[in-house]
Amino acid sequence: MRSFRFPLIAAVLLVAASAAFAQRPASPRGEAAIQVGGSYEGRNYVGGKWISIDYGRPILRGRTGFFGAGSDYGKGANAGAPVWRAGANKSTRLKTEADLKFGDKTVPAGEYSMFVDLKEGDWTLILSTHAAKDGFREPGEGLWGAYNYTPDKDVLRVSMDLSSMPVSYEQLTYAFVDVTAEGGTLALMWEKTLATASFSLP
Fold first, then answer.
1. What is the CB neighbour count within 10 angstroms for residue 151?
2. What's the N-to-C CA distance of the chain in angstroms?
């Protein structure tokens, strides 16, 4: 009997691992995060404040020209919503412990839903006080993705810089780039599109 114990345990673990892998969401959640506004004292970074983006990360899986063209531009990404959720599933969320300045507009420290208004060659980054639901059928206030979005809760609308990349990003990716003591740039990369919005600390 003892000789059968190890194969049996191994088989059970293999089945459990396979089930867990099969249950992986099609668009896994991801996070981009940085600290700004602090300084090093010796080897310790002190006084820094966090900025983070929590988002669903859709994967192309063979799709090309995801954002479309002409009169159909953005319709596929929006999936019937008025704007793009800038991710997948639950609304993309930006949380900042510091006030942020985009151009001449200041966004107070807090947590916001983040959307993008897609126009061909002209993307607008939106930060909104719309709450986010964890599930489509969850009751109460808030949005699932960008469905039922309305602009009355916007705290920021700012144009994004668009460029084409020489490589294609398979999975939607956010990053903070060109970060200095004074600010940085929020970057969105998917397929061959790079969209950026620079910010500073007031």
1. 13
2. 71
